[in-house]
Amino acid sequence: MPLLSVESLxxxxxxxxxxxxxxxxxxxxxxxxxxxxxxxxxxCGKSTLGKALLRLVPSSQGTIRLDGTDITRLSRxxxxxxxxxxxxxxxxxxGSLNPRQTVHSLLDTALKVHGLGDRDERRRLAAEIxxxxxxxxxxLTRFPHEFSGGQRQRIGIARALVLQPELIVCDxxxxxxxxxxxAQILNLLVDLKCDLGLSYLFISxxxxxxxxxxxxxxxxxxxxxxxSADHASLWRAPRHPYTRALIEAVPSTAPxxxxxxxxxxxDLPSAVQxxxxxxxxxxxxxxxxxxxxxxxxxxxxxxGHAVACHFAEPAPFQNIEPQPRKTL
Amino acid sequence: xxxxxxxxxxxxxIAMSTGEPEANHLSRRRxxxxxxxxxxxxxxxxxxxxxxxxxxxxxxxxxxxxxxMVGAPLLWPGQDPEFLLGTDSMGRDVAxxxxxxxxxxxxxxxxxxxxxxxxGTLVGAIxxxxxxxxxxxxxxxxxxFQTIPTMLLAIVIVAIAEPSIGMISLAIGxxxxxxxxxLTRAQFRSLREADFVMAARSLGYGDARIIFREILPNxxxxxxxxxxxxVASAVLTESALSFLGMGDPNVVSWGNxxxxxxxxxxxxxxxTALPGGAISLAVLSLNLVGDGLNxxxxxxxxxx
Lengths: 328, 304
What we know:
The structure holds 2 protein chains of 2 kinds.
Chain A: E1 4-15, E2 18-30, E3 35-39, H1 46-53, E4 61-66, E5 69-70, H2 76-83, E6 86-89, H3 103-113, H4 119-132, H5 149-161, E7 167-171, H6 179-196, E8 199-204, H7 207-213, E9 216-221, E10 224-230, H8 231-236, H9 241-249, H10 289-293, E11 299-302, E12 305-307
Helix pairs in contact in A: 3-4, 5-6
Chain B: H1 31-36, H2 39-56, H3 58-61, H4 94-130, H5 132-147, H6 150-160, H7 165-191, H8 195-202, H9 207-243, H10 254-261, H11 270-297
């Protein structure tokens, strides 16, 4: 049984012009010990999806199952024990820590709310977790503003870990950090995963980060999954033109490398008035008559590889040269 | 893990850099120092502390009842060294009246601000945090109270109940909470979407803990600034009430000192000028402290 399984999840916001469908029918699962990457450009709904999984924003339809238990409509009280099992690391290391609380209080409160340990036990746990994420135990008495961005993100990770969760949703955890710090944080996440047997949903718009990190990748466009594949085949043979464009957009170390004609241009269409037919057709170099009328369903094209494009088979693109893996 | 990062070293334990903290941030310990460095705030604070000291030690400095006749009537300030600020038409010591009046004014100001803060923060926090129907109802309630002038409400309440310090404070507090409620609501509406609140919710914190421990401490700065201005306007309202003779008749207040001196304005103007000056100075000092707090607590709004 997968650790987390999501079926046709919908989530949105009421806006002035109608309902903004940020997540519009998404299904996927995460196995134990797996890192699932979720990529897409800004505004495609990936953060909302991450928050909907943790019940931080409401879902209008669909189900979220954690280890077989449907948590989509649990009451606050009934949800609390499940909260322990799923935590989140946020993008902004400045906004995600309460500036008025010391590191100790940030960690201690979480343990207290869940009734874990007495005073001394909690103190020991907090010290342990802080050292585990690579900060000295003396950090406990300090306030978040006394730390650098990378250190704060470590505190954010410590807070996510303190309840010993099984799944961590990382919402762009390194995109607000310097490149040199990004590698440290990513390595920390890899180490923690190996040591603690964690699963991750790793949300990012940066393919070079996801490439380094994820076992399997979901590509999201305007609230829907357009391609889902294991790490290797996605990079070797992307089937969806959007995925292809995203991969093309990763800065290359070989500038003379051929680029596809008509690479993605323009902006994401409005999620309030979703275009009829294929959502990507307004920006797609391959779009034709059929795409305007019929929305392509996400369908299996190879083992573990699903694509939502009418032109997915046979593979429309010749294989691109596998690039040497980027070193961060 | 299918990916191994051969080129990356294992996560190093980062040595703690004691690098400079953010310039904008003020910890609790540095707040007093920041106020001391701000000349207007410092001036306001000194004047205010003088009044507070006067109010606290009024009983020691002038142990007699300030309503007692103690000397010849209508002595000008300086005329008799025993009555430094002179006496009024009934031979009461003006200096004693000012000291005891400070007690009444500041007490009313403080109590009404506390009442206004309590109601306003609670209403604003609940409305802003929960939103929806609860918020709609509380906003209507706030608007309803906001349409009633504080002065009018205070007059009505004091006219119905007996005019005591407590009742006057309550009346002013009940009339002035909508400002605080609207401010608090706006703060909560923006902060409830903040990442650290999301984190608190994902950790399973209860609503009360999120409202009072997570959001409120971060929403407090503008509320404190507004509260100091609220004290100032409460002092003014109290003076106006007692000027109209609706204050507590057994307590000396700056307002009723002015009312009593009003008829002698042409012959003994000091009887109105002295308590009037005290009111102005007290209100000014509270506004200066409010401005200073605003500069210190909201550094981004500081004039460029």
